[in-house]
Amino acid sequence: MIDSFAVYLSQKGRSENTIKTYCGVIHTFSSWLETKDKNLHELTQQNVQEYIDFLESEKRSVSTINKIFNTINTFAKSQDRIEITENIKRSKIKIDYVAPDFLTEEEVSALLKKAKADASKRNTAIVFALLYTGVRVSELCLLNRDDIKLNHKSQTGQMVVRNEQENERIIPLSKELVHKLHEYLTSRNDEHEALFVSNYQKRIAARTVQHMLKEEYGVYPHKLRHTFCYDLVRKGVDLSIVAQLSGHSDVNVTRQYLQAIEDIVS
């Protein structure tokens, strides 16, 4: 089951380190279950609750318990058994703050300069799209041409973004992104519905995007997402709007960027 979980995570575009960490969490959980004469194959909601209670009794940090629970929740999704993580009670203690990792203004400038010089209009458009919309790499790969509305003359546009839960949000596009997307789309001579396609004319995969960004630009997609959120908060955009644009279901996640700014100022 853990091997199949690794495959599931890989298909979702998770990095090798993330896959290793997630599988490690589930392996530890499985070992704990065995001490209780239980196993992953017959996992119940009560088992999950008992494990969370055990972690709290061991005085594990709230952030650690939340990460473990989120991993178990992802595991449950991979098994189509999301009900086993519903209504699990956890400590109400404030979650430990972890500053998001984002690019500095100098790093953004250097990244954009390199992206503009890239011979691949697709790669350039991907960098601009991730940086100026804050979409997750999985959401980027799900985008179709029809999800993009561009008015090249007025240099305005919008993007309809869908996540894996099929929730939608609309993100306005910057002039620079409109220009880069227009350049990329007009260079295409295929009729594939996907906004971004691979060199083999198939919908681009998350791992392909991750590999390209790492090899060509030395950056990971999520860092560009963090940069997008941080920049909006830094400019004074209301947290609820930032949460809506970035697809955060909990505004407290967005609030971390405000804390990051306060840390820099102090």
UniProtKB/TrEMBL annotation:
Q: Which InterPro entries match?
A: CB, DNA_brk_join_enz, Integrase-like_cat_sf, Integrase_catalytic, Integrase_recombinase_N, Integrase_SAM-like_N, Tyrosine_recombinase_XerCD
Task: Look up the coiled coil feature and give its residue ranges.
Answer: none
- Give the UniProt keywords, A-Z: DNA integration, DNA recombination, DNA-binding
Q: Which GO terms describe its biological process?
A: DNA integration; DNA recombination
This entry's Gene Ontology molecular function terms read: DNA binding
Q: Which residues form the Core-binding (CB) domain?
A: 1-80
Q: Which domain of life is it from?
A: Bacteria
Gene3D superfamilies reported for this sequence = 1.10.150.130, Intergrase catalytic core
- Family assignment? Belongs to the 'phage' integrase family.
What is this protein identified as? Recombinase XerC
The source organism is Halalkalibacter okhensis
